[in-house]
Amino acid sequence: MADHDILSDDEREALSAVMLEPDLPPQRVLIVDDDQDARELLAQILGLDGIRCMTASDGEAAWQLLNRHASIGLLITDLRMAPSDGLELIRQVRSSSRAALPIIVVSGDAEAPDVIDAMHLSVVDFLLKPIDSGKLVTLVKRELGLAP
User: What is the pTM of this model?
Assistant: First the structure.
């Protein structure tokens, strides 16, 4: 019997790649903070619960990652960063094709007007440093659809 395969070689390769991948990669969290220790700590806290994270040191680097990685399903950002602050990043996200992206603000020195501005930009929550890691993990899991 002749081989009458309806798939091209490229299609067969793509199908094989999908079939070999047991699960699609879970949505990632992008953590943005100019304090490297804070970024790494948040990534470690979330990583302990199996949540994959990416990090950026400022709004500009975060924006580039958001545009390159569709798997980013949640943004956690500090407010006070140089050269571009967290509020500027949130505004940029809200006026883009990623406008519906859930955002959690984590800040150590926010003033009332900053909190109000962030809440008007529809952030999920505003957590003050030092953060309650349990609350953060619960929020992240809920926003990524990982909560039971």
Answer: 0.81
